[in-house]
Amino acid sequence: MGIFKRLRDLTMASINDLLDKAEDPVKMLNQFLRDMEEDILEAEAAVAKQIAIEKKFKQQADEAEDMVNRRAEQAVKALEQGNEELARKALQDKKEHQARYDEMKRQYDIAKTNADQLRNQLDEMKDEFNKMKNKKDILIARAEAAKAQKQINQAMSGFGTDNAAKGFDRMSEKVLQLEAEAEASKELRSSSRSLDDELAQLDKSDGVDDELAALKAQLAAKKQQQ
Length: 226
Known about the structure:
Layout: H1 2-21, H2 25-80, H3 84-156, H4 162-202, H5 208-225
Helix pairs in contact: 1-2, 1-3, 2-3
């Protein structure tokens, strides 16, 4: 009977406490069902033994009852043949088998009552196990959803905090500073290039003046030859 009490205590009282204390409800549920399966197998073995006892007493009671009926018939037959002494022996033996039958019948009734009770308890445990098995997927889905929500909440906990906002402000100021420095560098480079261009223009010639001077020199030389 202890195995059934342990199963009943597990299924009805301990499960909530076990799940509350479990770090991983999914693993705990699977382990809990495995433990229940093992206990049910042990309980089935215990019930099978009780059923075997019940059948044994039933067989012995049936055998004793058959002998009671046979000796009664034999006693009648012996009297019909005028053998009173043989009839007396048959009735004496019938009385002994009757006593054995009464005892075996009493033991069988007790064994059957115990077996029926164990069968019912085992059926209750199996029903409870099946209910828990059916609930397992739902509970696991809820546990996984809760863990996912917790992870998201933890990941988002730093969003929008003062430290993050100040960090973004500092980075924005840094970018503005870099942009201003780049613009100033561009202006300085442009100013320097314009001055260089003006100075270079002083020495720049398109070649026309040189060509004109060459022509003048040729004409002068030609006049001298005339």
